[in-house]
Specification:
The protein is mainly alpha-helical and 239 residues long. The chain is built from seven helices and four strands; from the N terminus they run E-H-H-H-H-H-E-H-E-E-H. The strands form two sheets. Strands 1-2 form a two-stranded parallel ribbon. It has a two-stranded antiparallel sheet with strand order 3-4.
Length: 239
Amino acid sequence: MHRITASATVDNRAFEEAARSLTSVLAPLEKRTLLWLAHRVPRWLNSDHLTALALVAMLLAGFSYWLARVTPVGLLLAVGCLAINWLGDSLDGTLARARHQQRPRYGFYVDHVVDIFGALFLLGGLSLSGYMNAYVALALLVAYLMLSVEAFLATHSLGTFKMSYFKVGPTELRILLAIGNLAVFVHPTVNVFGHQYRLFDVGGIVGTTGLLLTLVFAAATNTRALYIAEPRPAPASRR
C-alpha cells in the first residue's frame, strides 16, 4: 500500500529574478546607507536574522500601540520599533547581495510574507491603542493588502517589482507614521472643519484613500501595458 504525502516542491529550473523598481524620495540615500551598513555587519549575522528582526520589531510595535492605551510612552516605543523594522527589512536583501548569497525566490517569498504579518501586527496594535478606530485600522489593512496583491501580480506578469509609487515607498511610510506618533504624543486630536477628530483616524482615512487610488492607478497602468504587450490574436480563418 502506497503512502500518500503532501509536500511543496520547487522547480529547480533557471529562475529569472524580477527587476526591482524603487524611485522614492529617499531611495538614493537609503541605498548608500544600506551598502555602508552591509559591509560592517558581523559575519555571524545573516539575512535570515535580519528578516526575523524585522518581524519581531513589527510585533513589538503592535504591543507598543496596545501599551499606548495605558501610557502614551507606548507611542515613543513604537517609533523605535519602526526604526528597527526598517533596519531588518531593508538590510536583509542588501546584505545577501553584498555577500553574493542571494536566494531570489526564497527571499522574495519570505520577505513579503513577513511584511503581511507585520502589517497585521502593526494595524492590529493601532486598533487596540485607543488612538485609532478599529474600523479605520481594518480599512487601512485591507487597502494595504489589496495593493500588495496587485504588486505581486504585476511582478509575475511584467517582470518588475515596483516598490514605490509617486515617490513614496516603505521607508517614507514608516517616517510618516513615526511623525504621526510624535504628533499624537503631543496632541492626539485635530480640528477638521470645526470638529475634533482623532489624528490617527484622519490619517488612517487619508492613507486608505491614497492606497486605493494608487491601486486603481497601478491596475489601470499595468492592464494597459499588458494589453499592448499581448494584443488580441486575429481570429483563425475558417476553412
